[in-house]
Amino acid sequence: MKKLILAAFVLSTAAGVYAQGTVNLANRIIGVATTHIWGPSTTTPSLSLIGLGSNDSPAGSVNFSGSGMSMIGGALAGKYGASTTFAQLLGANGGGAAETSLVPVGQTTTFRTGGAIGNLVAITSTLSGATPPIPIDAAMATLEIVAWDNSSGLYPTWTQASAAWLAGTIAAGKSGAFNVSALSGVGSVTPTPYLNNVTPLNSFNLYFQVVPEPSSLALAGLGAAALLIFRRRK
Q1: Is 102 within the bounds of a domain?
Q2: pLDDT digits 0-9 by tens, 177-200
Q3: Nearest Cα to Cα of residue 157 among 172, 138, 141
Q4: How many Cα neighbours within 13 Å face the side chain of 126?
Q5: Domain count, the chain
Q6: What is the rounded CA–CA span in Å between residue 209 and residue 228?
Q7: pLDDT at 149
Q8: Residue 147 domain-assigned (yes or no)
Q9: pLDDT for res 14
């Protein structure tokens, strides 16, 4: 019996050590602040904007709508629809981590429609996936919201979507990195980025990466080869 009790204690302690912190993944907190996520510009699909717009709270001066963008969720499905556009957190343990070091953490969510267009379906995101882990009661974590078009159904994860985005196949976007303090754990309240982050959360839009044309790559290769030959002759 003593061995069983000791084993149970060890298992529960290990679970506590490796338990992950949680964060409220939302960009609409009534009475506190609201931001929005927008689709690509119809005039300049590669345009990326990050900041506060006139319909945000607090309001800002970034002109998303004037740049040919519409908020995610104007329709339920299809491109940039509420149910077919996904979002997730990227993260790393500790504050001020480089954006390139952030990895997918937590779960994916979708978007709302109607009066909450442009807003995420709020979820409590468990921040599993980072190495080292982002534990419960962590003093600080670096997080970033990413969103992408999954209307094809081919990109259910950010790992798949980011590769397609870099290839110019789909539109996606990032909020920019921000810090969240006092991640929830034992006896603590689950934080929302608006209430705890060091850098205020912003609105952002999905956009297409500019991928060089094959002919441009070929010309660049010929130029490099010619330069190499010229140097050798000298």
Answers
A1: yes
A2: 999 887 876 555 667 777 777 777
A3: 172
A4: 5
A5: 1
A6: 30
A7: 98
A8: yes
A9: 31
pLDDT in tens, 151-161: 999 999 999 99
- Sign (positive/negative) of CA torsion 102, 106, 109, 115? negative
- For residue 112, the tally of other CB atoms under 10 A from its CB is 17
Q: Is residue 117 part of a domain?
A: yes
At 126, phi and psi to the nearest 5?
-85, 120
31: tokens are 């009475």
How many other CB atoms sit within 10 Å of the CB of residue 34?
A: 22
Task: Kindly provide the b/e burial profile for residues 68-79, where b requires at least 16 CB atoms within 10 angstroms of the residue's own CB.
Answer: ebbbbbeeeeeb
Exposed / middle / buried, residue 31 (Cβ in 10 Å: 0-12, 13-18, 19+): exposed
Who has greater pLDDT, 227 or 114?
Answer: 114
Whether 160 maps to a domain, the answer reads yes
**Can you say whether residue 209 is alpha, beta or left, with left for phi > 0 and alpha for psi between -120 and 50 degrees?**
beta
User: Domain range for residue 119?
Assistant: 21-209
Q: Are strands 178-181 and 140-149 parallel, antiparallel or unpaired?
A: antiparallel
Is pLDDT above 60 for 224? no
Predicted confidence at residue 185, as pLDDT, reads 61
